[in-house]
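Below sits the subject:
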Amino acid sequence: MLTAYRAFCTMAAMKGRVTECLLAEQRRFIVWVPVCLALGIAWYFSLSYEPAALPGVWVPLAVILSGWVLMWRGWLNVWCRLSGGVCASVAAGFMAAWSAGHAHTPMPELPRRATEITAVVRHVSDMQRDGHYIRSVELAEARFDTFYDDGMPPLQRIIRLKLREDDPVVLAAGDQVRVKALLLPPPFPSFPGGRDMQREFWFADVAGTGRALRQTERLGHSSVSLLHEGEAIQVLRVAWSARIRAALPGSAGAVAATLLVGESGSIPSVVREQFAAAGLAHILSVAGLHLGLVMMVLFWLSRFALVLLERAALYWPCKAIAACIALAGGGAYAVITGLHVPVMRSLIMASVAVAGLCLGRRVMSMRGLALAAAILLVWHPEFLLTAAFQMSFMAVMALIAGYEVLGPELSAYRARYVSNNLARIGHRLAGHGMALCITSLLAGLSALPVVMAHFGEIQPYFLIANLIVVPLMAVWIMPWGLVTFVLLPFHLEGLALVPMGWGIKLTMLIARVVASWPAAHMTFSGMPVRGLCLVLLGLCWLCLWRQRWRLLGCLPLCVGLLSSLFVAKPDILISPDGGMVGVRSGSALWLGGQAHDAAWVSRAWRQQLAVSAVHSFPQQGEGAGGRLICGEDSGPGVCVLMAHDKAILIDLRSAANSAQLTAAACGGMDVIISAAPLRGNCPDVPVRLDRFTAWRQGAQTIFIGFHTLRVRSGRDAQGKRPWVMAPGGHGLPDLPLAPSE
């Protein structure tokens, strides 16, 4: 009894302390609403099945109402407010994700043969890869010239089509075209738990991809207006991008087109890799940094122009007017660059900041960030799963929280009186340098776990590169970019693009130099989803609270960062079509066979496993440290892998070249992997994986241990969701309705 009484007293004391902390932090409860929304959205996407309307809408709606009633009736009790708000927010996030998932049309069944397509061009983009320009288009309202599609309504999803290199037709948004193409459905994940392109295509209203087999025929401009899809803005973006790259040729012009109109496809892959290795990849992605610089320049120019007018300076609210002008210019810049997720977040926060400035409230606050996050999560719940959303909000949250702690000390240092003029200049430069270091360090470190989880890499020299490039962007590149916008209507953009190109070339030089340093690009094995969730929750706990208990967020943060060290790596990987097999051997990956998307699949495998080298299966002989033997008893294309106490037979021969495997070849094998259908071959082998298995289950991974063997398939990881296509990538057939009686 005494022990129970002591335990009860201890629990009561702990509850009292937690209640005191919550009462001290009650003004920060509201900033946790987007976190709870994100938990509900993540809960929906983590399910292995699709909930019906009752658990998807009506049950969350009942929970929301119950949560509101609990908060209303127990408003004076901090625990009632907290529990009611958490339940209502999580249920609202789950319901928003379910509604967004069911707001899209089913995936259609695309023709599996070369087909004539008549469609309307929605978007045109250029991409430079390996010195070649690749032109692709997005086609809307597509109609297929097949006998069973005759008379059917146009496709409600868009198709992404890569054009031929020798296609001379100049296309623009709104053009009606006819082209013969080979179409493909959205690909399955390259390994179980990998990037789900089917889910991304589902929410992007994309039906599939393809490549043109002959030159495009332009039929004229579509009579159906696509203004609701941004036709006029797209035409303007393409025209301005071409003029910018004509006035500033080369890679510098491609970077300038990215910064000014958001057309990043023409940047060479070498330049992209150098920027990424130097920790400057955010420079090539229009985000809050670019919008903030544009608005800052517009704000100071507008305010300076207003104070030159005596009446305006004396009687007008010049600061608020300048802020509104900067917001309008920033909104126009966000629209012309494509309204990407980081830009939308920055624009919402900028709107809140301008409203606060006009009302005399704080400009940058955690509540403004929470409002922007809540709006985006309710509007597009799928944004939560993207690296852009996570990096953007984590970086800004860390900046706001960091300056809440370090801001007073930095302001006190800047306000320190220095009598000597030369020393005063150095003091000001030191203050700006400290602010820049703090900003780069907070933003870089907070985004680092997201980069590790999504891309499996880190850039240790990001602080050095950003200390030089960010001020260069602020004082030289983006101001000349604004001048370019002013001169574009007069076809005088070259006067501003030339000096802007000087800054861009210097930025490219810095990226090239930093990327050449030792260990500038370090790779890590993929962080599991649970580890990333722990990291993000730990960062939120560390940044959103103000009391000392915020330091408890370091525990899940560290556990999440270390989670990748305790994740088992697969020993064998099989591509989604069953044609390519990968064998992990230490820090190397051995590949054999052929897959439809071999380059994309092998790149995803290499990133997930963090291997340093990739080799091909030997035609005849040994590989993988002697564990892999190919081309001996059963001829070329047949290999035997010895892993722990298991023997695996790998038959890489295609269906046309495959032959009956002998009983001697199958004898003693624990697993057989075949790129062709096995049918009656090796019936006594315990685990048989062939092309039919891949057709039904998607990509597969095999984990081999002593006396253990586990196979995981991509379909098990995806579950049964609306965006998961039928085996073989088949969608809903486009069949005519039955005639009415």
Q: What stands out?
A: Confidence is low (pLDDT under 50) at residues 225-229.
